């Protein structure tokens, strides 16, 4: 009962909403980045696309797991599973933050540089993509913290 | 006694070493970045300098606190202080990671661009600065985790 009072941990509807948000924001980030044809000419943009390609299946799988857990009322809270989820979330949140801030700094440099580096139509897309990546990072950190909070209660 | 078995938390010699490492690496990062005269022309480099200017006093203060705590054998472990340290470490580690990855991506772009953007003598300095910032981030995350580990034991 005490465990159920942690909203946002695995198997709650708040967690389902967080995972769904992560999947949506990272898909949007990937979408806006990869529709600009020139993304592969900058390392940071390729990095962002790679990381978003990791975050999307991770969030989607965990969203399905949460949905299943809510529907059949079967708890998937085991110390091992939770540890894997916390570590996975932490690693992905670090990578997402690094990718998002790299992308943001590159966009800033491209906007300042004179010349045909950044047509306005593309730059707006890149900016939206970086903003979506930051939002996805925020939700991943939230998920990670909520699950970390639950971990000591399950261990003993 | 059980608390003393967490190496790296506030008031241990491991924590003192971690703080000293953070102060040294962030000072080195600031040093190598600000001796290149052109750092203020890129937002990411200014951001790195700002964050390093925050990390250095923070790490230095906590190193002194640890040293004092070791020398006079007076425990400074209180739930409130520890919470402030954990939150400060987390915020600073997030900012350091963002600054370091922004700097790294800008350096990568400067190295690829043709033209006089990055003279080799300056670029090496920028690269060393980014590497030092990453090392400082690693140590800050380690400090944060060790202290976070201790937090539940102190709360109740």
TrEMBL record, chains A, B:
Annotated compartments: Cell membrane
Leader sequence segment: none
Bilayer topology term: Multi-pass membrane protein
Ranges annotated as spanning the membrane: 39-60, 81-107, 127-151
Keyword Transmembrane helix: yes
Alphabetized UniProt keyword annotations: Cell membrane, Membrane, Transmembrane, Transmembrane helix
GO CC term (a single one): plasma membrane
Location, primary (coarse class): membrane
Family annotation (Pfam families): CASP_dom
Casparian strip membrane protein domain span: 10-139
Subunit structure: Homodimer and heterodimers.
Family the entry assigns: Belongs to the Casparian strip membrane proteins (CASP) family.
Protein's name in the database: CASP-like protein
Organism from which the protein derives: Olea europaea subsp. europaea
């Amino acid at each position: 009962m005490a465990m159920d009072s942690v909203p946002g941990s695995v198997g709650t509807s708040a967690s389902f909403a967080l995972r769904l948000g992560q999947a949506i924001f990272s898909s949007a980030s990937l979408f806006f980045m990869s529709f600009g044809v020139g993304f592969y000419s900058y390392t940071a943009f390729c990095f962002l696309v790679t990381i978003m390609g990791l975050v999307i299946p991770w969030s989607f799988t965990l969203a399905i797991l949460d949905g299943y857990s809510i529907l059949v009322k079967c708890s998937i809270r085991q110390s091992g599973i939770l540890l894997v989820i916390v570590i996975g979330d932490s690693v992905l949140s670090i990578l997402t933050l690094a990718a998002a801030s790299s992308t943001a700094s590159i966009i800033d440099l491209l906007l300042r540089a004179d010349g045909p580096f950044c047509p306005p139509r593309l730059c707006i897309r890149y900016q939206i993509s970086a903003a979506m990546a930051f939002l996805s990072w925020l939700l991943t950190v939230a998920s990670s913290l909520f699950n970390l909070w639950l971990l000591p209660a399950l261990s003993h």
